Amino acid sequence: MEEKRKYWKRFRRYKDAADYYGICQSTLEKIAKDLKATHKVGKVVLVDCNMIEAYIESCPPA
After folding, report:
1. Domain 11-58 belongs to what topology?
2. How many angstroms separate the CA atoms of 7 and 39, rounded?
């Protein structure tokens, strides 16, 4: 089984971003929509990962 490499990309699809951050896709979609961090290109919705990173860093540690 091949191991997927996780490398930085500024824009990702919902599924890729959810896998990258290790959270479920529905949670990521909610966060991205609340932050207005989505960009629609044709039929594809991309998430701005810079905005997601800033949000995650601003959250207090659990």
Report:
1. Arc Repressor Mutant, subunit A (1.10.10)
2. 20
